[in-house]
Specification:
TIM Barrel
């Protein structure tokens, strides 16, 4: 049985506002909660007009308060920008308020352009190496640092009796190695790197995994974009809209809002956009709910995991909600009634 989670960017549709996008994300997490999705993560994207998910810690507090069962977390906190102890305090507070429901997903990507990245770091130089920041973070969460650590004996508060579950977000073997060495979850970004390296990274993670205070056995998620239509014609339109958004997002001329189907149908694709579409083909599972569900099962099999995280990057809140409904039905999420997972 495949479990499904959701990764949400809080996309801002044409004619919408950041406020309405965050309200839409609230309704999306409530649907995921009702439909027995395993978890709902929100991203950290800075300076992107078409996305409202900028501060995952703040958004998690709101979304967890609007739901009752589903795990809520970050996908993810861009750790190099921040104090490890402050991140630990934020997520231990969230876990204290929502026991057994908080995921601390983190990564090393900047999540911003060079200027914004410098601003986030207050133009500091000589940043602490990422593996050491990860060790610091986990030590602050548990209160147990290596004896050689400069922070030995220092724990983040509050102590609510349970711990947020850390997940390394990555798209390479080095992140798999980091997750395994620390005994925490590993989420592979298939939506960034669908080349096939992810399967080897997951195998490496499982092979090298060391049990920890967080997990006694490996936990793997593969994350992917989805475009789900009510029929094949709509699925094709939604796939076109996805590729247009992504092609422009990767260029110097991103759309200020998620392009609508109408805009996409009337768009004259440039050679660069067509090349981007070809290059990005493997990053999205597109089709009807039946077709996408079958592709999800195949992806889970290839990665050797029981859980896939879907990012429904489609224009229109109703379409995103419908995608969650139809995939839940196809994959029998409600019948499986999964109420407890790592």
């Amino acid at each position: 049985m495949v479990k499904l989670g959701v990764l949400d960017y809080a996309p801002i549709d044409e004619g919408a506002t950041a406020w309405s996008a965050l309200q839409a994300s609230t309704r999306l997490v409530q649907a995921a909660d009702r439909l027995n999705y395993s978890r709902f993560w929100v991203s950290e994207h800075h300076g992107i007009e078409a996305m409202a998910s900028v501060s995952p810690e703040v958004l998690i507090a709101h979304l967890a308060g609007a739901t009752s069962r589903i795990r809520v977390g970050s996908g993810g906190v861009m750790l190099p920008h921040y104090s490890s102890v402050k991140v630990a305090e934020n997520f231990k507070t969230l876990e204290t308020l929502n026991p057994g429901r908080i995921d601390l997903g983190f990564g090393r990507a900047p999540g911003a352009n060079g200027q914004l990245s410098a601003a986030l770091n207050d133009e500091k130089s000589g940043l602490r190496p990422y593996p050491k920041k990860v060790a610091d973070l986990l030590g602050f969460v548990t209160g147990h640092h290596a004896s050689s650590s400069q922070y030995a004996g220092v724990a983040a508060t509050p102590d609510g009796g349970t711990l947020p579950l850390p997940w390394v977000l990555g798209a390479s073997g080095s992140t798999a190695e980091l997750a395994a060495a620390n005994g925490i979850g590993f989420t592979f970004a298939h939506f960034i790197n669908p080349s096939g390296r992810g399967v080897k990274a997951v195998e490496q993670y499982k092979r090298e995994f060391r049990p920890s205070a967080f997990l006694t056995e490996p936990a793997v998620i593969a994350a992917v974009f989805v475009a789900v239509g009510q029929n094949e014609a709509e699925a094709k339109d939604l796939e076109d809209a996805f590729h247009l958004w992504l092609a422009r997002a990767e260029s110097a001329f991103p759309f200020p809002r998620i392009p609508s189907l109408e805009r996409t149908r009337h768009h004259s694709w440039s050679a660069a956009e067509l090349a981007a579409r070809e290059r990005n083909q493997g990053r999205v599972l597109a089709g009807t709910a039946t077709q996408v569900a079958e592709a999800i099962r195949a992806l889970a099999h290839n990665y050797g995991t029981e859980e896939i995280m879907v990012n429904p990057m489609m224009p229109g809140e109703n379409r995103r909600l419908a995608a969650l409904e139809s995939l839940a039905a196809e994959l029998a999420l409600q019948e499986s009634a999964v109420f407890s997972q790592p």
